[in-house]
Every structure is written in structure tokens, then in C-alpha cells.
From TrEMBL:
SUPFAM superfamilies: NAD(P)-binding Rossmann-fold domains. PANTHER family: FLAVIN REDUCTASE-RELATED, UPF0659 PROTEIN YMR090W. CDD domains: SDR_a5 (cd05243). Pfam families: NAD_binding_10. Residues 3-116 form the Semialdehyde dehydrogenase NAD-binding domain. Gene3D superfamilies: NAD(P)-binding Rossmann-like Domain. This is SDR family oxidoreductase.
Amino acid sequence: MENILVVGATGTTGRKIVNLLRTSQYFEPIAMVRKESQIKEFSDQDIKTVLGNLEEDVSHTLSNIDKVVFAAGSGGKKVVEVDQEGAKKIIDASKNHTIKKFVMLSSMGADQPEKATELKDYLQAKHNADEYLKASNVPYAIVRPGSLTNEKGTGKIEIGQALQKQGSISRDDVALVLTRTLHDDSAANRSFEILSGDVLIGKALDSISNR
């Protein structure tokens, strides 16, 4: 059983990730929360937590952690402080704690933020964090979904290194992809885009892992 630090555990997608991990036979979630008042939500479900603020020192949050899912986001309010520098702090701490895998929730368009017509600052921050992770020597997977929806997941996606089109995907399916990608042999040191599609998530991830 591996301990998984879920950064952004109180977000909409983060909660879905935590709930998937708590039913897993392979992983145990450790929810990173910013305020003490947020602990009860998780402790009531017997989920462990750690206090950490991405705008402050977070090196303590990686103790006894095997892998990381970074699903935090500032909602466009503090893209440099949280989406970029906060991610870098967790990446640095991951290096120091020899984390076995770092799964980054990024965004479609983060590979070429200069081409964006909207959310350019956000995509630039995500791009900088992604590039920092790639250069860190921490084993990684970078997942870049299209627009997130709250529709029920289908368990099926379209996947590719660069899909060359716009689209959307449910948070349910994104959370499922992120948790599946935690396995050592899944999309190791790969970055890829995902949209709603027709291929089962497991099969889709196998296709990107074997390239």
C-alpha cells in the first residue's frame, strides 16, 4: 500500500481523487488541506490529512509519502503563487524525499501558452510548472485535460500527446485517469492530452505508456 499525497484535496477534482484512492487496494490517500477546519471532512471518513499551504513552506508534507498527485489550482486568482510556485515547492520537496512518481494535473494548451487567446497567464504558469517537473528528475506523468465538466464519467477517453483539437471531459474521468496513472508502469515520464472519447481509460493509458 503506497501513501499518496493529494495536493488540492479540497477542490472538486481533488475530492474525487481522494474518494477513488480510499477504495483502492494499492494506494492510501493523504489529503493536503490548507486550514484546520478542513480536516474533519476527511477524518470523518478515516482519511489521513496533512496541513500545508502552497504559499508557504511545504517540505513537511512529503514525510512518509510514496507518490504525489498535484491537483491544486488557484481558480485564476493566484496563478503564479499557487499554480506555478506552489507546484515548484512540492516538486522540490519530492526531490528531497525521493518520491517515486509525481502525477501533475495540467491543462490542454499548457504546452504552448503563447498561442492561447484566453487564460494565457494561467497556461503560462502551468507550462512553467510542467517544465520544472520534467527537469527535476522526479519520475512523472503530466495529464492535460480539455475543459472540465461536472457530467457523469463514462470511463472512456480520447488520448494523445497532442490531440490538435478542443473539447471537454468530465472531472470523474479525469480523476480516474490521474489515479490510474499513479501505477509505476503507466505513462512513465510522459505528458499527454485527454478528452471525452470512446476508448476505455485502461486501454488508452496502455497505448500512451507503450509508445
